[in-house]
Amino acid sequence: MPVRPAATSAPGSTASLRTANQARVVNVLRGRAAELPADGTPVTQAELARLTGLAPATVSNIVRHLASAGLVDTEPGSGRRGTTVRLARSAGLVAGIDFGHRHVAVALGDLSGALVAEDRRRLHAEHAYDEGLEIADGMLTALLAEHGHGVPVRNIGLGLPAPISDDLVRSSAILPGWVGVNAREVTSGWFDRPVHTENDANLGALAEHRHGVARGHATSVFLKISSGVGAGLIVDNRLFRGADGTAGEIGHLTLDEQGPVCRCGSRGCLEAYASIGTVEAMLANQLPDAGIDRILAAARDGNVSAVRTLEDAGLHVGWGLAAVVNLLNPDLIVVGGEMARAGDLLLHSVRIGMRRHAVDAAASTPVVASELGERASLIGAVLLAADRTEIAVGP
Amino acid sequence: MPVRPAATSAPGSTASLRTANQARVVNVLRGRAAELPADGTPVTQAELARLTGLAPATVSNIVRHLASAGLVDTEPGSGRRGTTVRLARSAGLVAGIDFGHRHVAVALGDLSGALVAEDRRRLHAEHAYDEGLEIADGMLTALLAEHGHGVPVRNIGLGLPAPISDDLVRSSAILPGWVGVNAREVTSGWFDRPVHTENDANLGALAEHRHGVARGHATSVFLKISSGVGAGLIVDNRLFRGADGTAGEIGHLTLDEQGPVCRCGSRGCLEAYASIGTVEAMLANQLPDAGIDRILAAARDGNVSAVRTLEDAGLHVGWGLAAVVNLLNPDLIVVGGEMARAGDLLLHSVRIGMRRHAVDAAASTPVVASELGERASLIGAVLLAADRTEIAVGP
Question: Which of A48, A241, B144, B214 sits 20 to 30 Å CA-CA off A149?
C-alpha cells in the first residue's frame, strides 16, 4: 500500500480543514495579516482568533500543538492583555542577500521575516558571481557567529538586479559577471541550503507592501531607480511575476524610437533617460566625476544643470509611469532605489510627467518615496526566504 | 437572539465547508474548470468528483440536494458513462448586452454562460443612452418571447466601450450619449433586475479566456481594435480591473509626445495611429469614404496605400504591446475587434513592432487573432451575468 504523506489529505476533508486552519494561524504569526501591527508586537490568542476568523478554542488547540513542536513561544498575559504568541526564534532563521551594481548586503531574519542583523559592503561592478558569493558568504558567517546563537539558517532569499526566469539570470548590463548563471542552482550549492532567487525590484515591492509605505494597498508598483530602472508589481496583495517571471521591465519602455541607444540594444528606453548612470553622464562636463550624491547636493544648492537634469529624468520617469497606471491602474506608486534620495527634486517632475501622459482616470495615482530606502530589496529577500520556509506540524 | 443567515457561517466551520463544497460543484457545472469540455457536454458525477477533488459520496449528496431545489438536471447514464449533471434551464436565464460605437448586440444565455440566442443591430454613433436602451430592451423582449419559455432572466451583463469606474461611464468619445451616466443604476432601473456593467475589452478578455483562444492561459491580454483601442487583462486566470476598474487603457499610451492630437486631449496616443477611424482618415484621399471592409479588400488586392496604412497601424500596435509584455509578461496576446478581420495583414507588422520594442525575454510572446471575433464582448457580457448569479441552496 503506498504511503500517503499527511500533508496531502483530500481537499474538502476534515484533515485538510485542520491543515488549513493551522496555516491561517501561522500566516498571522508570520505578520502577513494586514491588520497586524508592523512593529513585531506579539499577538494575543484572542487577536489570533479575530484575525483568522477561527473559534478561540480552535486557535488555542493549534497554538498548543505548535508550541509543543517548538515552533512558537507563548507568554502568559499581564493585566488586560491575554497570552501572547510569537514564532519561536529556535524554529529557525533565514537569510537575505541583495546584490547591486556596486554593493552586496546580507541580513539575518526570523521566520516572520523580521530583521535580526544586517551588513552592507561595496563591491566592484565587474565582479564575477563566485567572487560576489564568497564575500556574501563571509558576511553571513560573521553575522551568524555574532547573532545566530546556533539556530540554523533554513532558507536564503537572493536578490539580483536582472530579469530572472527559470532561475537563469537573463541579460544584465548591471551585473555582467552573473549573466547566464543558474542562480538558484549555483547558490544553493554554494550555501548548502535552499536559495530562492528574485529580481531586486520585485523584492523591493514585496518589502514596501508588507513593511513599508505600500502596506494596505492591494495593487501597488515599486519603481527602483539605481544603476538600472526596474519595477516590481503587487497585484491583489501578491507579487506578480508574469508568465516567465520577467514582469515589471519598465526600464526598457521605448519613449522615443529615435532616442539614445540603450545598453539593452534598443533606442530611447526609459533607462537611457533616467538611470543614475545617465544622469551622471549628462553632467560629465558641468560636474566632472560627480557621483549621484554630489549631483543631488549641487541641485539642492541651486546648480541649474543639476536641477534641470534631475527634472528631465523625472519627466521621463513620469512618462514611463503613465504607461504603468494606464495599463494597471494601481492605487499607489512607490519610488525607491538610490535615485529616490533626490526626494521632491525628482518626484515633483515625475508627477508632472505622469499627469501629462496618463489617462484622466489614472493620472492622479499617488507617487511617494520609498519608506525602506536602499534596504527595501534586502528586507524583501529576507521576507522571501521566510515565506518559503514551511512552518507546520502534522496532526 | 439575532437571526444569522445560513450563508454567513463562521469560516473554518463544518457548515462553511459544506457551503464551499457545494460552490465547487456549482463552479464546475458553470463550466469554469479548465479541464471541462467547452462545448457544453454535461459532466458525469464521477468527473465532478475528479474535477472538484471531493469524495464521490459527497458529490452525490450535493447533486441530490441541488436537484431537489430544481437547480440541476440529472440524466441516468448509458453504457460506460454514468449519471450526467447539468445546470437546469429552469434555474434561470441571463442576458448580455454589448454596445459599440455603431451597434448593439443582445444575447440570452443559461446559467453556465452558454448562449441560447442572440441578435445584433446597427445603431447611429450619437445615440443617447436611453435611445440605445430602448432598442436593446425591444431586442431582449423579442428573444425572450421566442426562446425564453417563460424562464426568468435573473441578471444582465452590459458592455460599454468606455472606462467604467464606480459604475460611472467615464470620458468616452466613442459613446458620447453615455458619458457621466451611472450605467448600473440607470440600466438596473430600466430592466428592473440587476445589471452588471463592464468595459467591453474586459468582457472580450473574459470570453476569450473561458471559451476562446486564451483558454488555459493564466495571464493573457485581449486587445480590442475598433473605433477605439482598449485592452482587457487576465491575471492568474481572473479578470484584472485595477484599483478603480480602469486597467487596460492601452489606447492612450503616448508613443510620440509630439504626435497627432488624440481625441482624449493628449498627443501621439496609440489610438491616434491604429484605430479604425484613424486608418479610414489616413486613406481619405486614396480610398474616399471607404469603410474598414473596403480598405481590407483593397489591401488584399494589393493596393499599396491600404497595405502600407495597415502595416503602419500594426507597427504602432506592436509598440504599444511591447509596453504590455515588458510590464506584464503575459503568456498570450489576443487581438480582437473589427480590425482583427485584417488577420495577418495587420498581425504580421504587429509582431514586428512588438519585437522591435520589447525586452528580449518578452519579445516572443505569441500574438494571435481572436477566436470569437466581434462576438467576444457579447459572450463576455453573458458570462459576467452568469458569474454574478448565485446558484446555491441552504443546508
Answer: A48
For B13, name the nearest residue in chain A, comparing CA atoms only. Answer: A54
Q: Hey, is B277 helix, strand or coil?
A: helix
The pLDDT of residue A40: 61
Residue A362, min C-alpha distance to chain B (Å): 8
What's the CATH code, domain A218-371?
3.30.420.40
C-alpha to C-alpha distance for A305 and A299, rounded to whole angstroms: 8
| Residues with pLDDT less than 70, chain B | 1-12, 32-40, 172-173, 395
Task: Tell me whether residues A357 and B12 touch, CB distance under 8 A.
Answer: no
CATH of B12-90, one of 3.40.50.1820, 1.10.10.10, 3.40.50.300, 3.10.150.10: 1.10.10.10
The helix/strand/coil state of B7 is: helix
pLDDT tens digits along A126-145: 888 899 999 999 999 999 99
The predicted pLDDT at position B19 comes to 87
Q: What is the pLDDT of residues B218-245, one digit of tens each?
A: 999 999 999 999 999 999 999 999 999 9
Chain A contact for B323, CB < 8 A?
yes
Asked whether the CA dihedral A350, A356, A357, A362 is positive or negative, the reply is: positive
Interface of B with A in 164-183 (CB under 8 A): 165, 170-171
For chain A, report the end-to-end CA distance as a whole number of angstroms: 21
| Minimum-distance CB partner of A329 among B247, B264, B361 | B247
Contact: A242, B55; criterion CB under 8 Å: no
Question: Chain B within 8 Å of A58 (Cβ-Cβ)?
Answer: yes
CA angle B252, B258, B261 (to 5 degrees): 55
Residues 127-146 of B with CB under 8 A from A: none
B241 touches chain A (CB under 8 A): yes
For residues A224 and A230, the answer to whether their CB atoms sit within 8 Å is yes
Are B71 and B91 contacting, i.e. CB atoms less than 8 angstroms apart?
Answer: yes
CA distance B229 to chain A (A): 12
CB of B228 closer than 8 Å to CB of B248: no
Q: Residue A365 pLDDT > 80, yes or no? A: yes
Residues of chain B within CATH 1.10.10.10 domain(s) are 12-90
- CATH of B213-371, picked from 3.40.50.620, 3.90.1150.10, 3.30.70.20, 3.30.420.40, is 3.30.420.40
* For A326, nearest residue in chain B (alpha carbons): B249
A264 in reach of chain B (CB within 8 A): yes
Residue of A nearest to B12 (CA): A54
Check: CB of residue B53 under 8 Å from CB of residue B38: no
DSSP B81: B
In chain A, whose CA is at the least distance from the CA of B332? Answer: A243
DSSP assignment of A34-91: TTS-TT-PPEEHHHHHHHHT--HHHHHHHHHHHHHTTSEEEE--BTTB--EEEE-GGG
Contacts of A324 in chain B (CB under 8 A): 327
Indicate which of A168, A249, A321 best probes the interface with B, i.e. most B CBs within 10 Å of its own CB: A249
The tens digit of pLDDT for each residue in A260-297 reads 999 888 999 999 999 999 999 999 999 999 999 999 99
The chain-wide mean pLDDT, for chain A, equals 90
ipTM of the complex: 0.89
Does pLDDT of A117 surpass 90? Answer: yes
Q: Which of A61, A326, A356 to mutate to test the interface with B (most CBs of B within 10 A)?
A: A326
Interface membership of B254 toward A (CB under 8 Å): yes
Length of chain B (residues): 395
CATH of span A92-204+377-387: 3.30.420.40
Given its phi and psi angles, is residue B348 left (phi above 0), alpha (psi -120 to 50 degrees) or beta?
A: alpha
User: In terms of Cα–Cα distance, which of A238, A243, A272, A240 is closest to A256?
Assistant: A272
